[in-house]
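Entry for the shared binder. Reason: the reviewer on the internal report wants the predicted structure included alongside the sequence.
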Amino acid sequence: MKTLLIDIRHAEPEDAGGIAEVHVESWTGAYAGIIPHKALTRMLNRRGREWWASAISRAASVLVVEIDGLIAGYATVGRNRARELPQQGEIYELYIRPEYQGIGLGMRLFAAAREALADHGLDGLVVWALEDNDGALSFYRGAGGQDVAEGVEVFDAKALRKIAFIWN
């Protein structure tokens, strides 16, 4: 029997290709049929290996879940961008490859992201999720998030509602 090594760590520039793959696979799975096709395609094409390598080298806070050398997920974290909410930290993105969803990796990455924010002295947490993304809503509710605010995100003239979840 083989034991798999699962590691959650800060991203390195050489992780950029794997993160780009996770981005395409997970966003396609999460948003196909929700975000208009052309807008989603533009968003995916904008963030290839070079974009991620640049983000990592600019000291963006990017965490990865690695399973035996394969990048299976990523999270990006930083300061809360919603001034109307008092929480200081925000998880901007948290995605797991579809074939690795449902086995607890997302919760482990979520916990690591919260810890990274706390290590930077950021109290409280905000995460935004599109209202039509049932998987994300279920995940964040299951993680104990309270939905406290709503907003709108526009994609190719299609307005989609989003929900803010908080943890204090």
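Summary line for the report: The chain has a mean pLDDT of 95.
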